[in-house]
Amino acid sequence: MGKIKIAIYGFGNLGKGVVEAIKQNPDMELVAIFTRRNPAEIASQVNNDQISVISASSVSYYKSVIDVMIACGGSATDLPEQTPALAKMFNVVDSFDTHAKIPEHYARVDEEAKRAGTIGIISCGWDPGMFSLNRLYADVILPKGNTYTFWGKGVSQGHSDAIRRIKGVKDARQYTIPIEEAVNRVRNGENPKLTTREKHLRECFVVAEEGADKAKIEAEIKNMPNYFADYDTTVHFISEEELLKEHSELPHGGNVLRSGETGNGHKHVIEYKLKLESNPEFTANILVAAARAAYRMNKNGESGARTMFAIPPQLLSPLSEEELIKTLL
Amino acid sequence: MGKIKIAIYGFGNLGKGVVEAIKQNPDMELVAIFTRRNPAEIASQVNNDQISVISASSVSYYKSVIDVMIACGGSATDLPEQTPALAKMFNVVDSFDTHAKIPEHYARVDEEAKRAGTIGIISCGWDPGMFSLNRLYADVILPKGNTYTFWGKGVSQGHSDAIRRIKGVKDARQYTIPIEEAVNRVRNGENPKLTTREKHLRECFVVAEEGADKAKIEAEIKNMPNYFADYDTTVHFISEEELLKEHSELPHGGNVLRSGETGNGHKHVIEYKLKLESNPEFTANILVAAARAAYRMNKNGESGARTMFAIPPQLLSPLSEEELIKTLL
């Protein structure tokens, strides 16, 4: 049997992660990387003569040779346009993560995918994605209970970007940190009511421009609505060298917990926990598994948008149902 | 829309748990409990005039009024016979947990269910079941890695039974206890090689018959092959009163961990953890969610055996796909 032919659309941290992820999955091969930037520039980054880097403007020529396109753009402006457009030609998988806009994104991908006879799996990362799945499973098992999601410790790119937009800031990295005491109260089945401030801390490492007013920057960060005002936030000013040396990785993780009761007051706690040294690489590995499911669902005659809620878990695995039952059940 | 009509086949701890679980799921109703014992005796235990207790010999009369039968017998001798037999008449769900015999059980249920046009979901507990699902998801996300399963702290009914069969033993309770140091080494991403003895301890509480040779009982437990010989085992002799007072509950739990690498050596750890005050009630809640999926798959024209690997997660939930995407994704 031939390998599943994968292509990547957009070559940032996530796209790089997908290149690595495909190497770990011998039933797949990477056909091409599509970019809106200069292909020569990306090709020199990829530095692998087996991988073609192609201008995004030529993507339609590849309709018949690609089994699944992995859309690796950002959720703010790229994916809302790109995933529906790609679904017109390809089975497509993305990690769209703007929670509030998922229903709208789903509807647009569903419309295009149904019309084209393709499958579009959206929001396949770890949140949304694996965390969502764990919220669902825990919810159906313990209908009488409460679910808690904690994020971190990890770099929030959205919060780092928000700091970078402040006048006088040259660069910044923001860590979201779950408050261990709160996590432990949930683990103990206390079902606590927790405010935003009681769940997470925010720690910021900021490189200020020369002569910038640090006190003003710090105040502006701490009072920023939505992003920081509802949290206990600490701000450290550091040198650019230190930022590059100590804060260039993108770790993340977190926990989904549900505590609930059955029968006459028996308590139960379900916990799903991730500790990730590279957020984009881990997300990329999920996307690649989802690509396998997209390929199979489409081979099976299905079309339209899907989330991980709709994917029979065994379609994610290279093993047959029989092998899975024997080895993992 | 009418409620999903559920019946229970076999009324031990698990069947009792299912009665409670159905109360937490307003889209379902319990139609009847079937028993091979005296229905009057079970009825007095159930003590609810809304629930019929019926002789198992009459089960075929109920073919047209039950949407899903939940088979609550034991895995050793009941389910291998009962689940295939029930699949001839009903959609059926069980928690068959003899790992080595699952392929054979699957084949028999599949044959009967396909012939009858029913769905038979097998092995829907927490292991096999939720732990299996977590092994699968973790495996597909981190192909380069190792999976570890730890059980406990909890009562192992199989090990408790094994002790009870020893001459001079009146009653016994055995706790399986994961060795925290081993769990922590896995959590730290050390990928340790662990022997059976390094993963779990076994702690036994034994009520001896009057005049029994306790030293002999203790030696017999500790040297029992498969069950105890490969473990560090401690044995405590206690009174029957203490056993009833301190060890009458059936707590359990455990962890599935996978640690693996992506890209150029970034490490990741995925952990799924359960802490359960009642093993049978938690298992019952999983069975009831699986019953909902069985009902829907069958309504959708499907038939044959299934495991949780084949169930699209959203079929387990009373919420619509749209509501799930909005609230849990």
Please describe what this structure looks like:
The structure is a homodimer of 329-residue chains. Chain A has 329 residues and is α/β, with parallel strands linked by helices. Helix content of chain A is 36%, strand content 26%. Chain A has helices at residues 13-23, 39-46, 78-87, 102-116, 130-141, 157-164, 180-187, 196-199, 214-222, 240-246, 279-299, 321-327, and strands spanning 4-9, 28-35, 52-55, 68-71, 91-93, 119-121, 145-151, 154-155, 169-178, 200-208, 232-237, 252-262, 266-276, 304-306. Chain A has a 7-stranded parallel beta sheet with strand order 3-2-1-4-5-6-14, with helices on both faces. In chain A, strand 2, helix 2 and strand 3 form a beta-alpha-beta unit. In chain A, helix 1 packs across helix 11 and helix 3 runs parallel beside helix 4 (102-116). The longest helix of chain A is centred in the C-terminal third of the chain and has 21 residues, at 279-299. The first copy, chain A, is globular and about 60 Å long. At the A-B interface, helix 1, helix 4, helix 5, strand 13 and helix 11 of A face helix 1, helix 4, helix 5, strand 13 and helix 11 of B.
